[in-house]
Amino acid sequence: MPPLSSMGLARFADFERGNFDGITYLDTVFTRSAQANNENIHFHELVHVIQWRLLGPEHFLFSYANGLDCVGYRQSPMESMAYDAETTFASSAAIFSVEKMVAVKLGI
Ligand SMILES: [Zn+2]
User: Fold this and answer.
1) pLDDT digit string, tens, across residues 20-65
2) Cys bridge to 47: 9, 11, 82, 97, which one at CB 3.0-4.6 A?
3) Which contacts of 41-47 are long-range, i.e. CB under 8 A and separated by 24 or more positions?
4) How far is the CA of 50 from the centre of ligand 1 (A)?
């Protein structure tokens, strides 16, 4: 986690202290070792990889921070999208294109 508070972004202090199982930067996913075999978390983070790629780093970071600031972590559009896709993945054996799902939700 970047040191957001010491970078002058104190409004994200709660997020900075979050105890997350995974986090994604561009196309690199980090998970806690205890979650290394958790497919649902990998899928969730895959959604963020797609978001980073489709939006580009600047727009992704703006959108993520804006959602976090306006409605909080869980309700932010980027997280809501990832959690919704994760639920679909976890609850069904149906094959679907997560890249297409993300693109549609982003309006791309
Ligand atoms: Zn997430």
Assistant:
1) 999 999 999 999 999 999 999 999 999 999 999 999 999 999 999 9
2) 82
3) 41/86, 43/85, 43/86, 43/89, 43/90, 43/98, 44/82, 44/83, 44/85, 44/86, 45/82, 46/98, 47/81, 47/82, 47/85, 47/86, 47/98, 47/102
4) 12
Residues having C-beta closer than 5 Å to ion ligand 1: 79, 82
**In 1-108, at which residue ranges do the beta strands (DSSP E only) sit?**
22-25, 28-31
Tell how far the Cα of 76 is from the centroid of ligand 1, in angstroms.
Answer: 10
| pTM, to two decimals | 0.93
Distance 94 CA to ligand 1 centre (A): 22
Ligand 1: centre distance to CA 82 (Å):
6
46 contacts 28 by C-beta, under 8 angstroms? no
